[in-house]
Amino acid sequence: MSFPSARSISSPILRETLRQRRRGGGRRRGHGWRRRRSPKQSGRRKEMKRVAEKLEALKLLIPSSLRSHGGGGGGAAEAEAEAELLLEEAAGYIERLRSQVQILKHLVDFYGAGEGNAAAAEEEE
């Protein structure tokens, strides 16, 4: 492809563009060039990555026997549904833990009051 000479073009902007193309610079779309992301897009991408990492950490905290195993590897809608399911499972797990703690407190109140004092008295003798 032959370009007209830079001197034959009257506009300084067009002349500079022509020089850049000859040198291989400037803005090109196509092979080997990436479109720059706006800072807003880049921030969203980082935020989504952080959320995904936190969801993975949450997934590790919930016992696998309590988790429903999703297919994974889908689009954005499937990832959102999987995240929602994980949060529901985490909430259920937290409720189970709370009820277990309450049961253990009641057992300690019922059985532990007399035995704890007796064991401490035996150790002192």
From TrEMBL:
GO molecular function, one term: protein dimerization activity
Biased amino acid composition, Basic residues: 20-47
Keywords carried by this UniProt record: Transcription, Transcription regulation
Compositionally biased spans, kind Polar residues: 1-11
PANTHER family given in the database record: TRANSCRIPTION FACTOR IBH1-LIKE 1, TRANSCRIPTION FACTOR UPBEAT-LIKE PROTEIN
InterPro entries: bHLH_dom (IPR011598), IBH1-like (IPR044660)
Start and end residues of each BHLH domain: 35-97
Domain of life: Eukaryota
Name of the protein this chain belongs to: Uncharacterized protein LOC109721430
Any one biological process term the GO annotation gives: regulation of DNA-templated transcription
Chain intervals for the UniProt region annotation (Disordered): 1-47
UniProt keyword annotation of Cell inner membrane present: no
Biological classification of the source: Eukaryota, Viridiplantae, Streptophyta, Embryophyta, Tracheophyta
